[in-house]
Amino acid sequence: MEEPKIKVGIMSAAEVKFTLDGTFSVLDKTVSGSQVATTDGNVILWNNEKYQELEFIPVDEASASFELEDVTIGVNFHWERKEVQRFKGALKLIVEHGKITPVNILGVEDYLLSVISSEMSATASLELLKAHAVISRSWLLAQIDKNKRIESSGEKYVAAENKEGELIKWYDREDHINFDVCADDHCQRYQGITRASTPQVAKAIEATRGQVLMDGENLCDARFSKCCGGVYEEFENCWEPVHYNYLVARRDGVNETDFPDLTVEENAREWILSRPEAHCNTADAEILSQVLNNYDQETTDFYRWKVDYTQAEISKLVRERSGEDYGDIVDLIPIARGTSGRLYKLKIVGTKKTLTIGKELEIRRTLSPSHLYSSAFVVEKGENDANGLPSTFTLKGAGWGHGVGLCQIGAAVMGAKGYPYEEILLHYFIDASIKKLY
């Protein structure tokens, strides 16, 4: 098998400003320098001409690059911001939903060079970087395979389960039909060559070139998140109802089977309100700086955290984030928890409306101006006000992200303790195997 080329959707805007550093071929001519493309919602307008799409191909891939202005990173997260970003490979412009989407076309290994440096600090331990290279490669190729299967079968990918009194939806990759992956946290954080890579990252990628995680003859859908909170979540509690034997509950510690049943409410409450020992239960600044970029380090506590809302704040927040008028919030009732204690069904009781929502990301989006760190939380209500409503709601939670697959902070601790990357991988992906594809 040859190294695949992939297509990465970078951003979406009515106007795209970009600079071609080097010579690029487009429409049987060569161009370089500053460019501007706009759209009327149907076609691309560039150099006073109209096009359905445009592809700028570097004449010399080794030396050429291109720069995009106003790329948003951390979409809808608390550290969202715009950047100028630089990329290797080809640039394709397409029209989607009335806007221009710049798509970067490049080889898998060059893509990984950026992802590993973007998802975590490029100064992380070599074994952690190797482990991340394998899971990022595995996840990427598994998504491409999944897209091909869905397309060839003609089936429509469904990302919701609607029942009376429930709104259960999940967010995966169903929006991406014109490219393989997006560049933000929705897929894997990819920022081209904007983040300076290091010889350590290049060494990790070269040492694991073509290596992937396999479940028998199938590529593993190798997920990862910042911090599991002590126990891994299972895939089906976050996304479509499919069970993977390699993505099951284990404790993020030396004794992997030593943990309570966190689908039971009393157990989950006790677990979340304590700080059990786990690899990812660390405040070691040196380890955290290896895993977290500067803007991720703006989050100071993630293993256990707390958020406070007044009655007015939470009622307004839920109304604005959900688009539903619940009235004043009377209660937040846990309905179903996954194996890590994460809620995948939560009943919101209001004076005007009651609805059960899920899965985990929908809950996190609804109860925060950006995203809650996770849906593994318990609710504590303040005393009733003059109207008989809870005066405050305090959410006490565990972990950061969905908790499925590799726990980045836990894996960083393992790397610092000298675990080889193979052991790190098989700690998080149960009974999987490592195979070299190319």
Q: Which spans of ≥5 residues are poorly predicted at pLDDT below 50?
A: none
What's the domain count?
2
Globally, the shape reads globular
The total beta strand count reads 24
The radius of gyration is 23 Å
- Please report the distance between the alpha carbons of the first and last residues: 5 Å
Class by alpha and beta content: alpha+beta
User: β content, as a range?
Assistant: 25-35%
Descriptive labels:
five-stranded mixed beta sheet; about 450 residues; about 25% helix; alpha+beta; single chain; eleven-stranded mixed beta sheet
Please tell me about this protein's structure.
This protein has 438 residues and is an alpha+beta fold. The protein folds into two domains: 5-203, no CATH class; 223-407, no CATH class. It has helices at residues 108-119, 126-153, 199-207, 265-272, 285-291, 311-322, 360-366, 408-416, 421-428; strands spanning 5-9, 15-26, 29-39, 44-46, 49-51, 54-58, 65-73, 81-87, 90-96, 99-107, 160-163, 166-169, 181-182, 211-215, 218-219, 224-225, 304-310, 329-337, 343-350, 354-358, 377-381, 392-398, 406-407, 433-436. The N and C termini lie close together (5 Å). The model has no long low-confidence stretch (mean pLDDT 93).
